[in-house]
Task: structure prediction
Amino acid sequence: MPDASGRAGLALIAVGVLNLVFVVVACCGVIGHLDSGYPGSSDLRDFGRLIYLGLAAGAFPIGVLIVVCGALLRTQRARLAGRIGAVAAMLPLSCGFVVGIPVGIWVLRTLDRP
Result:
């Protein structure tokens, strides 16, 4: 059974993977609608797609950062990386932050224990 920092690292990895899944789903959804050819395509709808792609582009590096920090914390190499990953998990850049907020708080509290 892993210790507390190992469990915290696993939780960060799970949140990071959730962010990366959001990126894949968002990009596939936008790309699927680009060539849909339905009538009534407006500039506002295109702007919404652009915003959606921008959020996905912002969530990708954050997701990778969270996974890497979780892996470093799991191997007990860097507690600072765990703190960085916990704060990054709480950033509202994707729908993963709903899970990332409680996980980030839990990881920070876990790392504060001696």
User: Anything to note?
Assistant: Residues 54 and 93 are 10 Å apart (CA to CA).
